[in-house]
Amino acid sequence: MEKVILSSHAVAYAVKLCRAQVITAFPITPQTAIIEKLAEFCATGELRARFIKVESEHSGMAALIGASSAGSRTFTATSSQGLALMHEVLHWAAGARLPIVMVNGNRALGPPWNLGPEHTDSLSQRDTGWLQFYCESGQEAIDTVIQAYRVAEEVLLPVIVALDGYYLTHTTEPIDIPEEAVVDEYLPPYHPKHKLDVADPKAFGGFAGPELYMEFRYKMFQAMEEAQRVAAKADLDFRRLFGRGYGLVDPYRLEDAELALVAAGTLASTAREVVDARRGLGEKVGLLRIRLFRPFPRAEVRQALARVSKVAVIDRAISFGHEGIVSQELKAALYGGEHRPLIYGFVAGLGGRDVTPEDLEEALDRAGKEGPEEEVLWLGIRL
Amino acid sequence: MARDKALKLLNTRDPALKGLLEVPEEEYMYSGHNACPGCGAAQAMRFVLKALGNQTINVLAASCWSGIAGVFPYSALKIPVLHTAFETAAAAASGVRASLDMQGDKETVVLAWAGDGGTFDIGLQALSGAGERNEDILYVCYDNEAYMNTGVHRSSATPYLAWTATTPVIHPQDRPKKDILAIMAAHRIPYAATASVAFPHDLIEKAGKAKGIRGTRFLHIYSPCTPGWRYSPELGIKIARLAVESKVFPLYEVEGGERYTLSYRPRAVPVREYLRLQGRFDHLREEEIGLIQEEVDRRWERLLRWCT
């Protein structure tokens, strides 16, 4: 059923369709309408779930660790400061191999206070052991939440579904809300092999010294590697049932491209327009949208960029002391491949600064030059 | 029956042995745990589980107990255990409860377990949240009055003028111990009580009473620590008993956040008797012991006013 709906509300519908059983939320600066809609679903009984109104994001994630360990399907949503506060327990959730799904409305961290869209909040959670998807539309958001549970519960790792703050969380678009019966077919009920159970008592998360700890981490690594295959299959199965799919990366007009833009999230929509405009001028330009960031789909990225000679990465994030975070990942992935295009790493749109078609035109122009002027290229700095 | 006869004899002859044979025989803790000799925290868990039985899930925050519970793949407890981060006992327990409720299991007791650091300090926010929501959990704080697992570092449960590794004798703990039971009472939770490993019958009775109540229940258990308090292992229970008898750690209950009931009337032993057995108070001068005595007496009078 297609509805003109707020993307945040669409996410709440996805959570309802996935029959999440325990939900936590805290209204940290800032929250989204996701939890408001879910609170309504739980209050009216449309969704049979316990909604715990926790006193912090940290407790929100800790409570989900408890609920997931006891065998429930779980959900929470957060943003920027809240995600940062959760950091410790993000590691814990992944280390405990719990298939928690969380939506993050990507927003800038303070100070200065800002709240505008930016990816640094979730990209800086890169090494916690969570899968990370970045969405371009409200439709993709609802679909990715449903896919996220499938993937999480198969590989036993938690998933962040990242939505650009405001551009996605606070905007309305026509969205097809999947049929409940089809979602049930796609996503079976969650029955974990191991859980807290008085009939079969086990201890979870106890001390493991150096003679064992590393093997726990190796198994996590393997699960994360396996997640690439599982995510690809989950997307294919989704396409078969719902007629829509997204891939782990999303190439656009790359077949014969010489210069590729690379971006994640809603920036890709602007980039597509710019690619089309340049194509109209006869320039061989394309776009690669990174949808799955963790695990980083190395093979797909290498394949998609196998013929381009130059890449202009537009990062809505920064790792101080190095460069844009997607740029960094991309360089690392391509260095391990046979084809190594020249990479221009741009930082743009921090704190919700608009990244306009003109900005991307500028990036393409600067990438047209012999080599990058600097290691890190900033777009639109007004100093 | 011989057992009934023995029970009757014990109950009538010696008040100190009252109820001894009523203590459940079942053990839910294995003997091969990792606690130090004379550890109060180990005894606290043993007694609490006797009262709760095996339909209990333990949510265990970072504490000495994270080690006592055993190294993977071993577990010292016969019930399910969820090890969690330092500040998360109450929050993770809330999640376990929510999950069990969703599975239709209202009977299993969710036991959140943390030390004084995980309760008075880093876990206080999560505990306050759970208490305010009146989560259906039993929260036990075993209080050994410092961060013992990390090397005897002071917590906000460390008593006035005590030595710890971070409050050296030239600058001992300079603030009074936080009143955690008053804090929990202020949340108007249905049940909060103090207990001591030196009064096992009272402890087991309170844990059993807490088991039968719905909503947030809080047990504050006084648990001596051999290395942290610097005493010889065989003195632990004696020190814990003296803490109660000297009114340093009174045994009482608070129901609904308002109804205070004294569980035991102490013999009013001078605090000196309690302090002198512990190396952590070795440095105290006479006038300092006097200050502690005055404060203990003042707090006792205040508690008595609340109990009436």
Overview of the structural elements:
- The complex is a heterodimer of chains A (383) and B (308).
- Chain A has 383 residues and is an alpha/beta fold.
- Chain A contains 13 helices and 16 strands.
- The longest helix of chain A is centred in the middle third of the chain and has 33 residues, at 210-242.
- Chain B has a single domain (23-307), classed as Rossmann fold (3-Layer(aba) Sandwich), CATH 3.40.50.970.
- Helices cover 39% and strands 14% of the residues of chain B.
- Chain B has 12 helices and 8 strands.
- An 8-stranded mixed sheet of chain B has the order 2-1-3-4-6-5-7-8, sandwiched between helices.
- In chain B, a hairpin with a 3-residue loop joins β7 (252-255) and β8 (259-262).
- Chain B is globular and about 60 Å long.
- The mean pLDDT of chain B is 94.
- β9 (203-204) of chain A pairs parallel with β2 of chain B.
Topology:
The complex is a heterodimer of chains A (383) and B (308).
Chain A: E1 2-6, H1 7-17, E2 22-25, H2 33-44, E3 50-53, H3 57-69, E4 74-79, H4 80-85, H5 87-95, E5 101-106, H6 120-123, E6 131-134, H7 138-155, E7 159-164, E8 172-176, H8 180-186, E9 203-204, H9 210-242, E10 249-252, E11 259-263, H10 267-280, E12 285-290, E13 292-294, H11 298-304, E14 310-315, H12 325-335, E15 342-347, H13 357-367, E16 377-378
Parallel strand pairs in A: 2-3, 2-4, 4-5, 5-7, 6-7, 11-12, 11-14, 14-15, 15-16
Antiparallel strand pairs in A: 1-8, 6-13, 10-12
Chain B: H1 2-13, H2 40-52, E1 56-61, H3 64-68, E2 81-84, H4 89-102, E3 109-115, H5 116-121, H6 124-133, E4 138-143, H7 180-185, E5 191-196, H8 200-211, E6 217-222, H9 226-229, H10 236-245, E7 252-255, E8 259-262, H11 271-275, H12 286-307
Parallel strand pairs in B: 1-2, 1-3, 3-4, 4-6, 5-6
Antiparallel strand pairs in B: 5-7, 7-8
